Amino acid sequence: MPKNTYNADSITVLEGLDPVRKRPGMYIGSVGQRGLNHLIYEILDNSVDEHMAGYCDTIYVTIHEDNSCTVKDNGRGLPVDLHKKGVSAERVILTTLHAGGKFDDTNYKTSGGLHGVGSSVVNALSKLMEVKVSRDGCVYYDSYERGIPTTKLTKGMLPIISKTKETGTEIHFLPDDEIFEKTVFKEDAVKSRLHETAYLNPELTIYYEDQRPATAETVVFHEPEGIKAYVAELNSGQEAVTPIIYFKDELSGSQLECCIQFVDAFEENIHGFCNNIYTQEGGTHITGFKTRFTQLINMYARQLGILKEKDQNFTGADTRNGMTCVLALRYPDPIFEGQTKTKLASADAAQITAQITGEKLEHYFDRNLETIKAIISCAERSAKIRKQEEKAKTNLLGKSRFSFDSNGKLKVCTSRDPEKCEIFIVEGDSAGGSAGMGRNREFQAILPIRGKILNVEKASMDKVLANAEIRTMINSFGCGFSEGYGNDFDISKLRYGKIILMTDADVDGSHIDTLLLTFFYRFMPELIKAGHIYISIPPLYLVTPKKKSEEPMYLYDDKELSRYQKSHSSDSYDLKRFKGLGEMDPPDLWATTLDPERRVLKQVNIEDARMASEVTEMLMGTDVAPRRDFIYKHAHEAEIDT
């Protein structure tokens, strides 16, 4: 038997900020674009907490040419006096996880940064960080490299670099290129977050400056009308069915602010926040609101005689058809699911939200009968179309619902363990044939599709469900779909842990990927949120050296080819460019796009649900002008396919 060496020496203790650098995804969600931008949000949230506490009304956010960022506020300034640990409190905050002033209700009654790791995590993941604290008439300075202090203290106290009459905190940081895949902040996402913050805090002004030449601009975000202006902006260009409904109240130490408007659109658009944090995945506050709203609409529908005794109640989706809602809860000691706070889990938040919503809306509807009638009319239309589409879905999917393959082209795998199984959606029969021969039949299934699938953003439900390719995908995955009124999606029935889009490395392939992602986003968004959707990266070139001692190489883009050509003479190798997956032999496909040990995959995720929905509608919808403007604005980011 092997010697048992599991003892005290086997236990590794990660000191200080080491856990953050070891597992950054646990703290900021990812090391991709979303995680990079999240660094700004963590520092911003601290400044916003100062505003919520009543000490800050101005925040400056600057992205510099070197892709570093500075966040400055005019709050009280981080405490700099000597902590019981023997060093300045500022250094304790920035070098210790779960250290801060937000763990009791003395300094911050409500806060978005209650986990207490925000600024220290940013410090750990930054190549360098500089801190200037203005308070008590002085400007104090500190600096760090990858979380390690580089400024010398005197008896534990920070050096004073100048005098000042101002107060506040200024943090400048440069993301660490050893941690992040890219270190270029995405300006659209950052501006969206800043504007969102201004809507939620009408007395706050945020100055944004981008100093990078390609995206340089200065914007001031100040929204004195608050979330009413937010709803108006979300509904701009759409026909209003009701006036804007606004209410605000306090209960059990919490404050709820809500704004609702119905428009002539066949969808719901709800944005929930807790302590200024956008809860992308909803949570108990959204559940409480939805439940009470549905009860109210059904109650009024029966009181007004619109729903008869024999009629079934409207569903929740019916009552919210056409709704745009911004719901902002300020709540002490919230419990979030995960460090990035995408879902509120505090149980009594549902009760607080439901009670305030019920009391305020009932008072409003009793005095505005025309408004409640307009909302019920939206629910009636929704229920009618829901029943029609449920019938259409039954007719179109019923016979083949339990069929594992409805078009005869799905090449199934032998395993039935979803955690091991993966399905490749392949462009064309030719590529499907090669992939079918090159795959591992035990756990890899192949589903060929013919060309570009239907653009679901422009199509009605009956056309979507009548599309053979879409029906085949729905049947193959086995988990149903959740768009509109079916709501029969059950992720536990998903047959494949990975759904991989495998298309040609050209413009047409990218377009097919876009159409497929639009389908997943609108009909199966849970698959994206749960991390089941991937995009394969096929190679563009095969380099075969003329020396038999050297192995052939696959190159995935023109940059790799350029690097190869710089170190090899043109007569020392043969070059083949793959025009498509169908040209690749089964061994090539296995080696480059199928083999789990060697392939390159991109996992698809949703960074900002609101922005994702807006961009999807803009790029894939029927309105041409916004799409044209978007293309002009972002043309400099395009990579031309040669």
What does this structure look like?
The chain has four domains: 18-221, 2-Layer Sandwich (Heat Shock Protein 90); 240-394, Ribosomal Protein S5, domain 2; 403-538, 3-Layer(aba) Sandwich (Rossmann fold); 611-642, no CATH class. It is built from 20 helices and 22 strands. It is of the alpha+beta class and 642 residues long.
Q: Roughly how many Å apart are the termini? A: 59 Å
User: Overall pLDDT, averaged?
Assistant: 85
Number of domains: 4
Strand content bin: 15-25%
Question: How does the helix and strand content classify structurally?
Answer: alpha+beta
Q: What are the segments in which pLDDT stays under 50 over at least 5 consecutive residues?
A: 1-15, 112-116, 399-406
Identify the CATH class of the largest domain: Alpha Beta
Biggest sheet, in brief?
A: 9 strands, mixed
- The level of helicity is 25-40%
Query: What count of helical segments does DSSP give?
Result: 20
CATH topology of the largest domain: Heat Shock Protein 90
The appropriate CATH architecture of the largest domain is 2-Layer Sandwich
The tally of beta strands, per DSSP, is: 22
Q: For the record, what is the CATH homologous superfamily label of the largest domain?
A: Histidine kinase-like ATPase, C-terminal domain
Query: What overall form do the CA principal axes indicate?
Result: flat
Question: How much is the radius of gyration in Å?
Answer: 28 Å
